Amino acid sequence: MKNTDLKSLIVPVLLVVVWGAAMFIFKTDQITDELFLTTCVAGAIAALVSTVYLLGFFDGMLKTDEIQYASLVYTDVYLVLVLAINFIVSQTNYKLSYTIFINLICLCIYAGLIMFSHNYATSTDAKVSMVEGSVQTHRALSQKMGEVLASATDLDVKKRLLELKQFLDYSNASSNQSKLVIENELYDQLNELQTLLAEKTDASRIIEQVDKLMTNVKTRNAIR
Hints:
Number of domains: 2
Radius of gyration: 31 Å
Largest sheet: none
Order of helices and strands: HHHHHHHH
Number of strands: 0
Distance between the termini: 38 Å
Shape: rod-shaped
Number of helices: 8
Low-confidence stretches: none
Structural class: mainly alpha
């Protein structure tokens, strides 16, 4: 079961209670028992479908609050519409086949809207998570770059590192999986560079490592 806030069930439950009371309070003898029973069953099915969705499929833990709650609006609108239609039909001599058809149409439209909103919310949530991951990775890279700069003593190496830092801190690349992969590689390369500096490795070899880093940084910055 999804992590559903039970407060989302308050509106549907109240709607069903009011509808059920109205169905029997305003019941008229002008319609057949068959039609009245059909409208009651159709309304009960709509209530059941809404409850099953809210308890079994709706995920209230996504980061995209505004988008994900569109499905709650669709659910409430669907329930209001179906209950209202069946109440009105229960007061008339509407054809039984038309009643069933209208309820099926409403159910199909509701199912389509729920599938669309759920997929869109999930997709957006994944993008938000990717952006958050990118921000965290970029912060970690900047911190590691500062540590590497603090470890450098050779002036030529520091100059190249400062140039690298300018390109590393600036990135207009979009947040996507390719960028995250490259940034993880950059972090590993910075660790290697820090190790070389700690071991007092020859400056030429360190500059060679910086050049490799620069190539990867420019590749990351070119991602659109």
